[in-house]
């Protein structure tokens, strides 16, 4: 059964196509973490690359025993040693988080793992797990090809990947089912596609117009349950048996409460009718720079 995890990129960065609040203020961050705990959320997802998110979490959660933390190695700059960079990244992350371990450590940039130092990096990840600095290990990916390439060489505990009610490509391709069969746990991110699921179809930026019909159908289905498209999207995530952790990012307590309530809804729908297979619109890496909703 899927569980909800709180993503923390907005704790350190002004992130998201529809984010009008910017980086989360200190007082709101405190309230969000308390609300997450009250809602039974046990996992926090962060990364060395999320601005000062790790440092803020360390300050706000010093001595915390409730949350499990997943963090990610800092992507390696060109001409630097991947292995040395990852080792340094974990040391810094543990210092910032004020913890002696993370519960999951992921390679943030998959190319770090697939390059010439990949075997050495993976061996070090295994050592970090054996020594207790990381309770589990894995990698963040973007598409099916990256999953296939990783699994041809390594067996991670976790794979984090993009997936949403609008982007069901890794479900239709059978990759999520294959990961479950191999005992590899899945963290699903981009569940709201940076807030795109909540944009009115007529307000979509021009490059995302292909989503007009799927979003219209999503809103029509949601209206039959007297809920909104965000609620519908998270109900979809909760209904996917291959997703172990559904990672959502918020900027306010009200957003988090809505997400937690939506995730607990029992909704039945023909989910595949909301899917879009056009990578140009469901993969934010392919969006034009500085694209904004109307």
Describe the structure.
The protein has helices at 9-12, 26-38, 53-60, 82-97, 110-114, 118-130, 144-151, 169-172, 175-181, 212-224, 229-238, 253-263, 279-282, and strands spanning 3-7, 43-45, 68-72, 104-107, 137-140, 158-162, 185-189, 245-249. It has one domain (3-198, 236-265): Alpha-Beta Barrel (TIM Barrel). The two termini are 37 Å apart. Strand 5, helix 7 (144-151) and strand 6 form a beta-alpha-beta unit. Helix 3 (53-60) runs parallel beside helix 4 (82-97). With 294 residues, the chain is an alpha/beta fold. The protein is built from 13 helices and 8 strands. It is globular. The longest helix is centred in the N-terminal third of the chain and has 16 residues, at 82-97. The model has no long low-confidence stretch (mean pLDDT 93). An 8-stranded parallel β-barrel has the order 1-2-3-4-5-6-7-8, surrounded by 5 helices.
